Amino acid sequence: MLTVFSQEAKAELMSLEVTDCVKCHMDAPATIASNGGMHKTAVTCLDCHQEHPPWGENVIPQCSMCHEGRSHFELENCLSCHSNPHEPLALNLADDIKEPCLTCHEGPGQDFANYESAHAEQSCTFCHAVHGQIPDCSMCHEPHAQGQMTSDCLGCHPAHHPLQINYAMTTPRAFCVPCHEEVGAQMEKTVTKHQTFTCAFCHRGQHPNVPQCQTCHGEPHSSVMHQKMPNCLDCHMDPHFLVK
């Protein structure tokens, strides 16, 4: 049976308000309200869905109608990750993807390009199976010290360029010794003030910084001796087990 609408009925149907949408579409507004992100705060239903049957068939908009100006927005098939546009940041990530991620997360991409490491060879989803999730380093790596947490790892090893090691002066010696066992053993045996220091107190900044003795000690001997023996370790042998 063919339904014929009066001009008044047509006008009423074509002048929908946002509050009308929920009368038929209950799930989508509820999803947007709970997890809509910018789709909740920046747009309304009618900003995206500008037509409605029977007065228009172009119901589902193109993402590019709003999203433009970045390389990420030039990717095809947005819904392969952003599977529900009503909760756009609840991503459904495919296995083994990298380049699409790096068009949005440019910083890690630059790190991978500038610093070689095993991490740079992995796909993003190898570690980040769920978008926004920070994985536990112990999923792949044995900790240096018992009780070490992911936050401790990241205090020295930036996740996307882990071999560019930086650390605070307060980093416990226990985090360093498992890789530098011989030095750790020497530090335990020495009876000098060096025994009380953390490794990072002397090796400040970026690993493997080797400090100059003069940074702390100046020139404690006579100028004649320093001219004759400019290398402190010619006499003191090993800074981790000083000979006096």
Explain what this protein looks like in three dimensions.
This protein has 3 domains: 7-80, no CATH class; 99-164, no CATH class; 173-236, no CATH class. It has helices at residues 7-14, 18-21, 27-35, 38-41, 45-48, 99-102, 106-114, 124-127, 150-154, 173-176, 181-189, 199-202, 214-217, 223-228, 233-236, and strands spanning 166-167, 205-206. The chain is mainly alpha-helical. It has a two-stranded antiparallel sheet. The longest helix has 9 residues, at 27-35. The protein is elongated. The chain has 15 helices and 2 strands.
What is this entry, summarized?
With 244 residues, this protein is mainly alpha-helical.
Tell me roughly what share of residues is in helical segments: 25-40%
Tell me the span between the first and last alpha carbons: 106 Å
- Total number of helical segments? 15
Spatial strand arrangement across the major sheet: 1-2
What is the percentage of strand-forming residues?
A: under 5%
Shape: elongated
What key attributes describe this structure?
two-stranded antiparallel sheet; 15 helices; 3 domains; 244 residues; disordered N terminus; mainly alpha; 2 strands; elongated
